[in-house]
Design a protein that fits this description.
65 residues; mainly beta; 2 domains; two-stranded antiparallel sheet; 1 helix; 2 strands
Length: 65
């Protein structure tokens, strides 16, 4: 039978902000790794086209770049 994985945090529903990837450790255990949301591109304020040279990232990550 397949091993089951449980959430490790308080939120126990499969929402957009609570996605996990099932990963196998070197010791053979199956664990849940939390995934972060994908970032949208920084866009031009005038025409709305994505700006070249700036990677897609979440706002908190962009602030640290």
């Amino acid at each position: 039978m397949v091993q089951r994985v449980t959430y490790r945090r308080r939120l126990s529903y499969n929402t957009k902000s609570n996605k996990i990837s099932v990963t196998k450790t070197p010791g053979g255990r199956i664990v849940a790794h939390r995934l972060r949301k994908r970032g949208s591109p920084v866009s031009c304020g005038d025409c709305g086209i994505a700006l070249a040279g700036i990677p897609h990232a979440r706002p908190a990550v962009l602030k640290r770049m």
